[in-house]
Write a structure and sequence with these properties.
With about 325 residues, this protein is mainly β. The chain has five helices and 16 strands. The protein has one domain. Strands 1, 2, 8, 9, 10, 11, 12 and 13 form an eight-stranded mixed beta sheet that branches. It is globular.
Length: about 325
């Protein structure tokens, strides 16, 4: 896993960012209000996945659970299902402008040689959250997706703790304004790499990127008909930093941030609706063994001559100011 030098490098980058922003302590999240852009650096992992701050209230399922009716919508369908009547002004609940979204992030890395053992987590996740065509497209691009609930977290944690050599990196909740982008950096240093994706028509698309980093672009949208439902959008991106800085307006005032050029891979992107208490898991699919495939690039990493697969857990939480009024 990452050596002390890599961990120190992350700390130094955070310290430099804080210094440029005029902050007194390092920051891991930069929110650029003007551009709708933020970045999260995933630091060094520690041994064994910790307990996520969930409070299960129901017995966890022993096999892959069935999809609840409220979560059976297709990935890209934000409107009503075909069986529903069209929403009207009387049925749509207005979204309060004071809504806040907090995103919990947990990265778990397991040795690729232990992938069969780690696969037990899928017994406790739903994989029918997207339509068949989208699921197949993601798998061809090396990405596997599942959705779980807080009530099912315990067996997921037990399965991950049982994987020899598993390591984890939890983060404090990150506040994201609705419709803003959060860049989740999946590596610790820039590199030269060849990356490609499989388009819907089966054509390969990609290129070679010098001094590039791998980022998962995340965006949360509130559902106008269900105040606790969030539509989570995820798109992989390869970024190359440009040797210059730019000033942007942030919550803390003007901040100097690096400029970069990015190549997005929408063929490996997804949109999934998440109800209150649900979380999404992104992990490599069987096709990720193909060198250069976007899923392998984003969700696996070679550390000290050993390859690790990454399981990314994302759980958005919606908070309204009205919910806290006495």
């Amino acid at each position: 896993m990452p050596s002390r030098s890599l961990s120190d490098g992350l700390s130094q980058r955070c310290a430099a960012t804080a210094a440029r922003a005029g902050l007194t302590r390092p920051v891991h999240v930069l929110l650029a209000t003007a551009l709708g852009l933020a970045s999260v650096l995933l630091g060094a992992c520690s041994e064994n996945p910790p307990a996520w701050p969930f409070a299960p209230s129901h017995p966890p399922p022993s096999a892959q659970p069935e999809a609840p009716p409220a979560a059976a919508e297709a990935s890209a369908a934000f409107g009503p299902r075909a069986s529903e009547a069209p929403a009207t002004a009387a049925t749509i609940r207005p979204v309060l402008p004071v809504a806040e979204i907090y995103l919990r992030i947990l990265l778990v890395q397991v040795p690729a040689t232990e992938s069969a053992s780690a696969a037990k987590v899928w017994n406790h996740l739903r994989e029918d959250v997207l339509d068949a065509a989208t699921t197949q497209r993601l798998r061809r691009n090396g990405i596997r997706i599942g959705v779980g609930r807080v009530e099912w977290w315990e067996p997921v944690q037990v399965a991950l703790n049982a994987v020899e050599g598993a390591r984890s990196s939890p983060w404090d909740p990150v506040r994201i304004p609705p419709a803003y982008l959060l860049g989740l950096e999946m590596d610790t240093a820039p590199r030269e790499q060849t990356v490609f994706s499989v388009e819907a028509d089966g054509i390969l698309s990609g290129g070679t990127f010098a001094q590039s980093r791998n980022v998962l672009q995340l965006m949360c949208l509130l559902d106008p008909r269900e105040r606790q439902r969030v539509h989570l959008h995820v798109v992989p991106e390869v970024r190359q930093q440009i040797e210059e800085m730019q000033w942007v307006q942030t919550e803390r005032g003007m901040m100097e941030v690096p400029r970069y050029r990015g190549q997005r891979f929408p063929a490996a992107g997804l949109s999934v609706p998440l109800n209150d208490g649900e979380f999404v898991v992104l992990a490599p699919s069987e096709q990720s063994r193909l060198y250069g495939l976007i899923g392998r690039i984003m969700l696996s990493e070679e550390i000290q001559a050993r390859r690790y697969d990454s399981y990314v857990f994302l759980k958005p939480e919606v908070s309204y100011a009205a919910d806290h009024r006495e």
